[in-house]
Write a structure and sequence with these properties.
The chain is an alpha+beta fold. The chain contains 10 helices and 7 strands. It has helices at residues 4-11, 15-23, 45-57, 62-68, 73-123, 126-132, 140-171, 175-185, 188-198, 257-269; strands spanning 2-3, 31-32, 39-41, 213-219, 239-246, 276-282, 289-295. The protein has a 4-stranded mixed sheet. A 3-stranded antiparallel sheet has the order 1-3-2, covered by helices on one side. It is elongated and about 95 Å long.
Amino acid sequence: MITIQGFAKLCGCSTQTLRYYDRIDLLKPVKVDEWTGYRYYEEEQALLFVKIKKLQQADFSIEEIKTLLPGDDELLMAAFDRKIKEQERKLERIQEIQRSYLQEKMDMQNMINSLIDLVEGRMNNPILWEEIGLDIKQDSEIRAKIHEKLADWLTRCRDASTEMARQINAQNPNTLKEITDILASGNPDSEVLIFSVANEEGSPQEAVPPNAQKVFERSGWAHVSEWINDIPELGNGKQNYFLFRVCGNSPVADPGFPTLMLAVMDVLYNAMKGGMNCTIDRSSDGLNHFELMQAL
């Protein structure tokens, strides 16, 4: 028998490694002196150490190593063969991911850009401007503000596109394509639903914090232009939540409306000072409703 220091030199490892192997019942000394606590090993245990070291280097787990230690070399070689095949499959999978990464990222970016282009095209619709009581040809300041907001949105979407691709693909690889297809179809019923995906999940009320207070509301209107000039002061540093519940035939249900609404509020009332959020939901009573909520 030799001491732990001598056995460590024989194996080319540290005594800390041997003590760790002892703690996890992987390679225990043949004797521990009851008075001194010294560990002693048999020279032949160095063969077990070699087996442990090589299995660890081959990425076997501790539990797998414990199972393989009592076996002969034939069993060990078979285990190495299985591990090689397992690693080959992993390598093939990584190579497949590598090959598909750039194309998938490009496809995702194209879908994001298509979605943005569609929404931007919607916001250039004169009907939406008329809904708010503006003239798309004359109100150039508001028009410039809208394109400024879209440019910022586009930048943020591009920065987040890789992470979006990972998250969306994990849930539904066709989500963005489905959204762009629906937008292109011009189906107003589906477009209202899209904004629960594109802006906030859930109902408009779920996007509002509990401490928010209602400061303005209108119901039963046909067009936003009927009451937009009655909105109270917004440039007070508070967070503003514009909550719409509308019929499917209302221009407010158009996907371009929320960004247009926020741009107009920012230009007319400096409402971005505290932050803004605009959500749209389907009306359940056949009437159009609007609520303005504010929170610190």
